[in-house]
Design goal:
Elements lengths: L1 H6 L2 H16 L16 H17 L4 H16 L21 H4 L9 H5 L29 H4 L3 H18 L16
Catalytic activity: Endohydrolysis of (1->4)-beta-D-glucosidic linkages in cellulose, lichenin and cereal beta-D-glucans
InterPro entries: 6-hairpin_glycosidase_sf (IPR008928), 6hp_glycosidase-like_sf (IPR012341), Glyco_hydro_9 (IPR001701), Glyco_hydro_9_Asp/Glu_AS (IPR033126), Glyco_hydro_9_His_AS (IPR018221)
Protein name: Endoglucanase
């Protein structure tokens, strides 16, 4: 992306287009349409690919196709298929994320393995945290001890935030046009 952007070299531009076209048309997906690379960080991989393709769209490469692809991936993450994977967003968001501070009770109560092993909802909500996500069959289990589904990390959020910013830039969504982006969906 950077070489294509900085040099406008035809070779780099074609490599970027080839990567996005392959990702959109041939890369393995779940039955509900999520790009699937690996079980760990499933949503991170999908959002990073969507981000790369939005950058290609910004350089006027297959603009509408790449924007629509990125929107479809983000819509999946925000709940278009029935479950949100963004903590605090939508009706059915992750409530037992694999994050020690989120699973701890309010101070001065102690925090130990008992809280980690609990089946209760995390007492602290990590608003805006993107979990690792589902497996290749769209299966997801909201369990704190199942880190492959429920891990939250900064790098999982990085691509996601970039794609959301890019979609806002390209689409200028209004609440009536894109109800998934309404502020009341954040609980």
């Amino acid at each position: 992306v950077l070489l294509a952007e900085l040099t406008q070299n035809k070779e780099y531009l074609e490599m970027l287009k080839s990567f996005c076209d392959y990702s959109i048309n041939e890369q393995k997906r779940t039955s509900k349409g999520l790009i699937y690379i690996d079980k760990a960080g499933t949503l991170s991989h999908a959002s990073n690919i969507a981000f790369i393709c939005l950058e290609a769209a910004r350089m006027n490469i297959s603009t509408s196709i790449y924007i629509n692809f990125a929107k479809q991936q983000i819509d999946y993450m925000l709940g278009s298929t029935g479950r949100s994977f963004l903590v605090g967003y939508g009706n059915d968001y992750p409530k037992k994320v694999h994050h020690s501070a989120s699973s701890c009770p309010d101070l001065p109560s102690p925090c130990n393995w008992e809280q980690y092993k609990s089946n209760e909802t995390n007492p602290q909500i990590l608003y805006g945290a993107l979990v690792s996500g589902p497996d290749r069959n769209d299966y997801y289990e909201d369990r704190r001890d199942e880190f492959l589904y429920n891990e939250v990390t900064l790098d999982y959020n990085a691509g996601f935030q970039g794609v959301v910013a890019g979609l806002i830039h390209f689409l200028r969504p209004t609440e009536s046009e894109y109800p998934l982006y309404r502020s009341e969906n954040f609980k």
